[in-house]
Amino acid sequence: MTAPLRWRGWLILAATLVLFSACATTSTLHPITGASATTGPVTVTTNLASYTTSDAIGATVTNTSKTAYYTRNGKSACTVVQLERFSAATGKWTPVDACTGSQQAQPLTIAESSSIPYTLAPTSANDINAWQAGTYRIVVTYSTQADGVTNPQEARSAAFTVKG
Hints:
Layout: H1 3-23, E1 42-46, E2 50-52, E3 57-63, E4 69-72, E5 82-87, E6 92-96, E7 107-110, E8 114-120, E9 134-142, E10 153-156, E11 160-163
């Protein structure tokens, strides 16, 4: 093989690689943040670390202090707990299982030294009887003020998975 043909072969190979790399799509997957449970006077725990798409999710909101706190309903399943799903594409937690009731959110008390269980039935935008697979957490926003929203604090469960 002569030198000009050899160079032409290398140039064609290099041009092909540049063309393919320009056409390749890149997607950034964001690491999970906010996956650890918070500590404080109000905590949120789940009954399992992993669920299937058809499992109900059990959560318990516990106030370990000698002070009453306030929250508002109208979150997931119209309760005080907000189920959130992590999007690796955006790096954000997104609320799911919205309250579809017509009543306005009401302030509620998280009594001192109390534990309140909640159960969320499986549902999603794709299937009203199944969760979408992914990473989730549960959040409760609470306050020392009776309106449940002034100077809010946040209690989060540890992240958990829903597997298909």
